[in-house]
Amino acid sequence: MKWEENIRKVVPYVAGEQPNKPNMIKLNTNECPYPPAPGVVKLATEMNTDALRLYPDQNTTPLVEALAKYYGVKKEQVFVGVGSDDVISMAFMTFFNGDKPILFPDVTYSFYDVWADLYRIPYKTCPLDENWHIDPEDYKQPNGGVIFPNPNAPTGLFEDLSVVEEIIKANQDVIVMVDEAYVDFGGVSALPLLEKYDNLLIVQTFSKSRAMAGLRIGFCIGSEKLIKYLSDVKFSFNSYTMNLPSQVLGAEAVRDDAYFKATTAKIIATRERTKKELTELGFTFPDSKANFIFASHKTVPAREIFQALREKDIYVRHWNKARIENCLRITIGTDEEMDALIAFLKEYLKNR
Predict the structure, then answer these.
(1) How many other CB atoms are there within 10 angstroms of residue 137's CB atom?
(2) What is the pTM of this model?
């Protein structure tokens, strides 16, 4: 039809399946298997709901101040959004406006190319090497900006900060974004590099390590100038992007550092045990520093295992994409959930 000629058409991002069945084991969207901090639960039950009739603080002051204090930066260096997806989307809109293509890995978070297409940003993917690592030399070509996760998703591999700095140092005339959604599970944040590079933007989320995916909280930290530019775009788009409960409960989550560290420690311990058990079953995988394992079996196709698990209401992630079609991304759940997964795989592979 004629009116369709002026519609912006994109191929949308496809999120992990969100089943809702009793007794299912959901290991496909990298959610935290444990509840939020006790203080968050207490505050949620005591919240004054009359305040919900008013607009929230458009500057998200409680959360920004809590994050600035925790990470040792100025509040003017912190920007928050509705999940890290919102933060990265705003950053694409703000910083990636040149004629040259932005660069990101070929195997990475699959929202990057969607945003690039949506905002009509030219892009080029740089192939990971045969061991799933980033080659910093690939990022020393003319470009309009760089983004990559560290640890990467879906591989789970963490790149040493020397690699991260090599990429930033080679691209000081554009914005470099490091997506640290999984950094709390064994990686090291690039935050110290902010003192040397004013073109660096670091993005993190509450959806994984802080067990608050349902409240949609993400943030980034950068130079005051970058955050000012980002805020200007945000206020031109929607002044009230984050609701009041997210601001208040998010700030409370940041304050309970002991619970945060205990939760991530439990997940790391379960991940390391699961690595050993999967290896014994014939799986191979990169050495994940995230809350998931990117595994493939030596003889059984990933699609077959994915379907067999799904029939038993055990959900993992599988993509029909080049290079990764024979891999499964398995979120780390509770010890009980991982025991059930391993028990099923043992039986299935034995009787196949």
Answers:
(1) 11
(2) 0.95
* Residue of 132, 98, 91 whose CA lies nearest to 115: 91
Sequence-ordered list of residues with C-beta below 8 angstroms from that of 202, at least 6 positions apart, any chain: 177, 178, 180, 189, 190, 191, 194, 220, 221, 222
Strand partners, 296: 284
CA dist 111 and 153 (Å) reads 11
CB 184 within 8 A of CB 209: yes
Asked if 211 and 235 touch (Cβ cutoff 8 Å), the reply is no
Q: DSSP assignment, residue 348?
A: H
DSSP state of 197: -
Closest to 330 measured CA to CA, from 87, 16, 55? 16
pLDDT digits (tens, 9 = 90+) for 117-137: 999 999 999 999 999 999 999
What does the pLDDT look like over 55-112, one tens digit per residue?
A: 999 999 999 999 999 999 999 999 999 999 999 999 999 999 999 999 999 999 999 9
**Taking the CA of residue 250 as centre, how many other CA atoms within 13 Å lie in the half-sphere pointing to its CB?**
31
Nearest-angstrom CA–CA distance, 22 and 18: 13
Helix or strand run (H / E) with residue 219: strand 218-222
Cβ atoms of residues 60 and 235 within 8 Å: no
Place of tokens 């009787």: 351
Burial class (CB in 10 A: 0-12, 13-18, 19+), 207: buried
Q: What residue spans of 281-334 are helical by DSSP H?
A: 302-311
φ/ψ (deg, to 5) at 249? -70, -35
SS3 assignment, position 292: strand
